[in-house]
Write a structure and sequence with these properties.
Number of helices: 5
Distance between the termini: 27 Å
Strand order of the largest sheet: 1-2
Oligomer: single chain
Structural class: mainly alpha
Low-confidence stretches: none
Helix content: 25-40%
Strand content: under 5%
Shape: globular
Radius of gyration: 13 Å
Order of helices and strands: HEHHEHH
């Protein structure tokens, strides 16, 4: 996949997202020093369980859409107080992490 150092840099950023907030793949990429690698972030998060427990459920796309095969993501976010709009997208204006 990719080197472990990058994986841990990305997961360290993800670990900083506070409960009740979300970040985008692009935001994580920028904070990890890889601003043009949003897709790489998604790939790293797909395998994050191999590296420990991280709040990957707090990462969504730029429009607030959830990961397509992460069925528990919405309930995990709702348990933290994150609200969704009528389309089922996170209300980014209210819940995006300001990092």
């Amino acid at each position: 996949m990719t080197d472990d150092r990058l994986v841990y840099e990305v997961l360290a950023v993800v670990g900083e997202i506070p409960a009740g907030k979300v970040a985008t793949y692009g935001q994580i990429a920028r904070l990890a020093g890889r601003p043009k690698n949003s897709r790489l972030i998604g790939n790293i998060l797909k395998y994050s369980d191999q590296y420990g427990e991280y709040p990957c459920h707090r990462v969504v796309n730029h429009a607030g859409r959830l990961a397509p095969l992460f069925h528990a993501q919405r309930s995990l976010l709702e348990a933290e107080g994150v609200r969704f709009d009528h389309r089922g997208h996170v209300r980014m204006q209210d819940f995006q992490w300001d990092a």
